[in-house]
Amino acid sequence: MQKLVTKLFLMTMILIVTACSFESEDETLKDVKKVTETEFSSTGVEPNTELEQFSIYIPNNLEIVEKGKSNLILEEGDQSYVVFNNVFEDRASELNYKTASVAENPNLLESFTDDGRFGYVRIIKTDEEEYELQVGIGGIKITTYSPLGSLESDAEMMMKIANSITNTSNKE
């Protein structure tokens, strides 16, 4: 009997510790909002990659798998990040945000303004374990699909990338 009580106690403790170690969806969404707003307001990093119409910072853990004039697909393992840069929209443009805001029931949709720039973050739960994450600044948007536990770090990295983009074309 004592062994049974001990086992039940240990199992209960394991469940409590495990449950406490995972952030809730609400806590994660608050953290994502905070980290994207902080990264949006930062001075940003210098681009390290020159493309046809823009320069961009690409973290070492990401690899370019496809590029077009205004699109770029980055990958890390089996996760893709789609970068879209509309050179005809400036940093204050709300076009991508307005498009993002028509989605039904987003889990998070927040916008930020700073020094003549407009940024946003949107998260939509797509299934039990995956979320569509989109961040943008003006005519720039980056989209990926992430599990709850990766949303915060992905959002921070994506806003850092978006913040680094500098248009180099003459908008031909």
Provide a descriptive summary of the structure in words.
This protein has helices at 2-21, 25-41, 95-100, 151-164; strands at residues 49-50, 54-56, 63-67, 71-76, 79-85, 108-114, 117-127, 130-137, 140-146, 166-167. The chain is an alpha+beta fold. The protein has one domain (23-167): Jelly Rolls (Sandwich), CATH 2.60.120. A 7-stranded antiparallel β-sheet has the order 3-4-5-9-8-7-6. Strand 1 and strand 2 form a beta hairpin. Helix 2 (25-41) packs parallel to helix 4. Residues 1-19 form the signal peptide. Keywords: Signal. This is DUF4367 domain-containing protein.
Succession of helices and strands: HHEEEEEHEEEEHE
- Rounded to an integer, what's the Rg over CA atoms? 19 Å
CATH topology: Jelly Rolls
Main-sheet strand order equals 3-4-5-9-8-7-6
Q: Number of helix segments?
A: 4
Instruction: Kindly state the number of beta strands.
Output: 10
User: What spatial form do the alpha-carbon principal axes imply?
Assistant: globular
Average pLDDT, all residues: 89
Biggest sheet overview: 7 strands, antiparallel
CATH architecture: Sandwich
In the CATH scheme, the class would be Mainly Beta
N- to C-terminal distance: 80 Å
Structural class: alpha+beta
Work out the strand percent.
25-35%
Q: Helical amount among residues, as a percent range?
A: 25-40%
- What is the count of structural domains? 1
